[in-house]
Amino acid sequence: KQEVTQIPAALSVPEGENLVLNCSFTDSAIYNLQWFRQDPGKGLTSLLLIQSSQREQTSGRLNASLDKSSGRSTLYIAASQPGDSATYLCAVRPNNFNKFYFGSGTKLNVKP
Amino acid sequence: DAGVIQSPRHEVTEMGQEVTLRCKPISGHDYLFWYRQTMMRGLELLIYFNNNVPIDDSGMPEDRFSAKMPNASFSTLKIQPSEPRDSAVYFCASSLALQGAVPYNEQFFGPGTRLTVL
After folding, report:
1. How far is residue A49's CA from residue B14's CA, in Å, rounded to a whole number?
2. For position B78, what pLDDT does the model report?
3. Per-residue confidence at B101, pLDDT binned at 50, 70, 90?
4. Best interface-test mutation with B: which of A44, A50, A52, A90 has the largest number of B CBs within 10 A?
């Protein structure tokens, strides 16, 4: 069974800092990987989707990379803002199942 | 598109009562997922459908839980009878397998239903 780990569980940074969130998975036979953000009491908002054939995806200040061989993905946030404060989750879809396995998330706090 | 729609947004009920959660997926999406989120266990997949057919219900915790998808625009998750340990946020999500001929499968989540069983 695929296991997804996100470290650290929580992160606090000052506004303006560039930061990296990590996601690791145990089985490299993945179909794609998706990054989400979740605000308190809200649903999950899709940020980026990386197909297994891709190495990275970018959207605005966000850049996600994928290294299947090492079982890792990173989400890079440039010039962080207080509005980026949320929990960030990664989810991995294996090759042979159309179901996602989620990490437990990294709770990010960006201080003004 | 309005996105994935769930109702009710909040439900408070007493132990033993039947609870029905509803979901309308994004129009045209061919996959629908039901998840449960708790502090202790995080986000868990309960069941998913493809073209209205249940594909994998291995995450459904007990026979008290059942899900249906009578058509492409509506799904229900029912708990009967409900218990306090069912208290959680229940999410519905939908996705589209292909965009043209290109694999896609980006999941879009609804706002969730916060269920409290007293």
Report:
1. 40
2. 98
3. low
4. A44
